[in-house]
Amino acid sequence: MSLQSVRQFLADHAPDIEINELNQSTATVELAAKAHNVEPGQIAKTLSLKVKDTIILVVAKGDARLDNKKLNSTFGANARMLSSEEVVNANGQPLGGVSRLSR
To answer: Which residue, 4, 9, 15, 103, has most beta carbons within 10 Å?
Structure first.
């Protein structure tokens, strides 16, 4: 989804939402929080995991940590973080980019 298509979607469905483009990096939770002048817990991060042959995206607060026991219990198998290359191959988005959950 391109920036223009997101702008059009929001204009049509949620005109009160504003898109802010930043000049500084938001590649990490810390950088994103600094760029937006908020605390890390106010930033949403997307974690890309693989459980068996299934890729799972977990959206969490920026300062949250995964509980591996709960994660493994929920999905019935061990989960592992995707590598940088696997993330790009799976969803076309590099690590540190804005989540493409709107796709």
So the answer is: 9
How much is the pTM? 0.73
What are 71-93's pLDDT values in tens digits? Answer: 999 999 999 999 999 988 887 77
How far is Cα 88 from Cα 59, in angstroms, rounded to an integer?
17
- For residue 61, being part of any structural domain is answered with yes
- CA distances from residue 45 to 51, 53, 76, 82, 88 in whole angstroms, order as listed: 19, 22, 23, 14, 16
The verdict on residue 97 lying in a domain is no
- 99: number of Cβ within 10 Å: 14
Return left, alpha or beta for 96; rule: phi > 0 is left, psi -120 to 50 is alpha, else beta.
left
Give me the count of residues in the chain.
103
d(CA 81, CA 67): 13
CATH of the domain at 32: 3.90.960.10
